[in-house]
Amino acid sequence: MENNTKKQRLFNLPETKGNFQIKGVVKGTKKNNFYTEKQTRTGKEMRIVNFGLEYDEGRDLYIGFTGIEQEKVYFYKKPEEKGKKGTSQPVSWANRFKFAEDPKNEGFRLIGKNLGLTKVTNEKGEQVNDKKVLTDYDACAEIRNNLKDGESVFVKGSISYRSNRDDKGNIKRYKSMEPSQISLCAPCEFDSEKFKAQNNFNQVIVFMGIEKEVEDDKETGRYVISGKVVTYSNIEDVEFILDPVDEKQKKLAMTFRKKVKPYWALKVSGHVQASVQVEEVAVDDGWGEEDEMEKVSTPVKREYIVTGADPTTIEKDLYSKEAIEEAMQKIRNANKAEESYGSDSDDSGWGDSSLGEVDEEDEEW
Hints:
By secondary structure, the protein is mainly beta. It contains 4 helices and 20 strands. The protein has helices spanning 96-101, 136-146, 247-259, 321-340, and strands spanning 18-27, 35-39, 45-56, 59-68, 72-77, 87-92, 108-110, 113-116, 119-121, 127-129, 132-134, 152-165, 171-184, 199-215, 218-230, 235-242, 265-275, 278-284, 290-296, 301-315. Strands 1, 2, 3, 4, 8, 11, 12, 13, 14, 15, 16, 17 and 20 form a 13-stranded mixed beta sheet that branches. A hairpin with a 4-residue loop joins strand 15 and strand 16.
C-alpha cells in the first residue's frame, strides 16, 4: 500500500531490510478476487490485485497488493555528481501523468511499481517489455488489463512485517511480499533438465536464538530461528525455518548455535516456499478397518526456509539488548499515548548464501 507521508520516527536504529525474487507461471487471473475495487472509510478509491505464481511444478505462491488514491505522488531525479543528493519532487495526484510528459521534467522518475506486462518493438526490431512506472493504484489496473494465466513473469520486491492483536488478545504476526517489479520473462519450463526454481529471499535479522521445531509435542527434525526485524516504525518478532536436509544444512544449524549470539545482526538467505498443510482423517472403508488418509487443508502456508547466512554482515554492537529495549519502550509509550487520544564455501559452516541473493537489476525488466 502506498504511504507517501510518514510519522516522525521514534528511534534511530537502522532498518533491517529484506528482499525477495520469484519467477513463475501466472495463475488465478480469472478468479473473482483477482481484481477488486472498493472505497476506504474516508471515501478514497482503492484497488486490490491478487494472483498466483507457480514457481515450481505444483507449488504456488500468491502475490497481492493494494493501491489507494493519494493527495500527492513523488518523482525522483538522480544527482548529476556522485556523492550529491538527488531531487525529490511532489506532484499532485491529478497531475501525475502530465508531469512525466513535460520535457522540462526530463530525468525525473516516478517512485512506484516497475511493470513490463506487454511487448513493444524496439529500434533493433526486437520484441521487448514495454516498461512502465506506475503508482500502486494505477499498477492494479495495468495488471488487471494485461496479466494473463499461463504467462511467465519475474517478480521482485521487499518483505514487510507487521503484527496486531485479535479479539482474544493473541498477537498475530504477518510477513508480506511487497512487489516493486512485475515483468514478463522467459517461459518457465518445469520439465526441462536445466530448470531451477527461483523463489529466493534475503533478510537482515537481529538474531535471538535457534531451537528445534516442535509440533503436537513432537520434534519435526527442523529448527526455528527466532529474531527481530527493525522496521521504520516498529520492532517485530520473526521466525524462519532451517531444514537440515543434508550435511551442509546440519552444519549451518550448528554454526548458528555455536557462533552467533543474541542481539547480533546478520543477513540470512534462502527460499520462500509453499508448504502444503495436511491433516490426517480416518476413513471408514467398509471393511472394519480405518485407513489413514491425508486431506489437504487450506490455505497453503508460506514458509521462509533459511539455507545460508553471510558472516561478513555480522554486526555485534549496533542492535544491543539495551538499544532494542530502549526503542521498544519508546514504541510502547507512543502506543499508549495514541490509545489515550484515540488514535559462502561449503566448509564455512554458513551454508550457501548465494541461493538467496536478490539481484539489484534483473535482465528481464
